[in-house]
Design goal:
Blueprint: E1 14-20, H1 26-37, E2 42-45, E3 53-60, H2 67-70, E4 75-83, E5 85-87, E6 96-99, H3 107-116, E7 119-123, E8 132-133, E9 136-137, H4 138-143, E10 153-168, E11 171-180, H5 186-196, E12 201-211, E13 214-215, H6 222-227, E14 232-233, H7 234-241, E15 244-246, H8 249-256, E16 261-262, E17 271-274, E18 280-287, E19 290-296
Parallel strand pairs: 3-12, 15-17
Antiparallel strand pairs: 1-3, 1-14, 2-3, 4-11, 4-12, 5-6, 7-10, 8-9, 10-11, 12-13, 16-19, 17-18, 18-19
Length: 299
């Protein structure tokens, strides 16, 4: 007599919006969600450092194919930047490497420094980051004592709004809400603001409140998801994140087989294609007068 447990059915494909707890890595969250959702096919869009909390978009089953495109969307953070000390990681998880009294720094100087870090800027990523240098993660080299040189990269800081300035002894804490492009390191902004003011700086608090259209108000904690695993269906997820294109039955058959459509003039970036019955068919990209599939989701 067989004692094998009945196989758990695969969950529906879709997104889970997690409110990541502090001290968890993004990989920790993926591992936990594999158990909660009951599938190995789980991934995340846009890594959050262990210190950070907030919106982490998790993809389940076929929705893992959306994640690379979602990771490129705009993000919003609430942050605290501490002036007066630098660390080897540019955040509070690292070791303090230098301190400089910052009590003399005026609010006007802080705002001027922030203005210089707003808009399209070139940013050098932190040495302790996941960027690969000669095939190896930068953080592995840095933690082995190697001086890692990373090239500056273009990022866009759409908004850098100061929400409070607090003085703690010889330190100055700057609370801010930051809207930025993919690839931006908020701890590098803290580092660079401190450097421009001559006192050093690092990040002491970070909470991501939005990734693309997915806000903290729709995020659920790990405990909440353990009780009820809420999965946003793929069609709803795509309709919220990307422009929508509805096609005819003939066009639907073409897309389902990986064929190209004529451009609909919906612009750059992924476009969600939906059949006459509202079924999500694919993500396409318009280029050179045609719309070519990036990912096809129908069988």
């Amino acid at each position: 007599m067989s004692t094998a447990r009945p196989r758990r059915p695969a969950p529906p494909s879709g997104l889970i919006i997690v409110d990541k707890p502090a001290e968890w890595t993004s990989h920790d969250v993926v591992g936990k969600m594999r158990g909660i959702a009951g599938t190995r096919k789980v991934g995340h869009a846009g890594t959050l450092d262990p210190m950070a909390t907030g919106v982490l978009v998790i993809g389940v089953e076929k929705a893992t194919r959306l994640l690379g495109h979602l990771a490129l969307t705009e993000k919003v953070y609430e942050a605290t930047l501490r002036l007066g000390a630098t660390t080897n990681t540019d955040d509070a998880d690292g070791e303090i490497t230098a301190t400089t009294p910052a009590g003399h720094v005026a609010e006007e100087d802080v705002r001027k420094g922030i203005a210089a870090l707003t808009g399209e800027i070139m940013q050098v990523p932190p040495q302790v980051s996941a960027i690969k240098v000669n095939g190896e993660r930068a953080y592995k080299r840095a933690r082995a004592g190697e001086e890692v040189e990373l090239a500056a990269r273009p990022v866009t800081i759409h908004a850098f709004e100061v929400t409070g300035i607090r003085r703690e002894g010889e330190s100055v804490d700057v609370d801010a809400t930051i809207t930025c492009s993919s690839g931006t390191y908020i701890r590098a902004l803290a580092r660079d603001l401190g450097a421009s003011l001559g006192v050093g700086g690092h990040l002491t608090y970070l909470r991501r409140t939005r990734v693309g259209p997915y806000g903290i108000e729709s995020a659920r904690t790990i405990d909440d998801l353990s009780r009820e695993c809420v999965i946003l269906p793929m069609a709803e997820a795509v309709a919220a994140a990307f422009p929508r294109r509805d096609v005819s039955e003939e066009e639907a058959r073409l897309v389902a087989h990986g064929g190209r459509l004529a451009s609909a003039g919906l612009g750059a970036g992924p476009i969600g294609v939906f059949g006459p019955d509202g079924t999500l068919l694919a993500l396409v990209e318009e280029r050179g007068g045609t719309a070519r599939p990036l990912a096809v989701f129908v069988p």
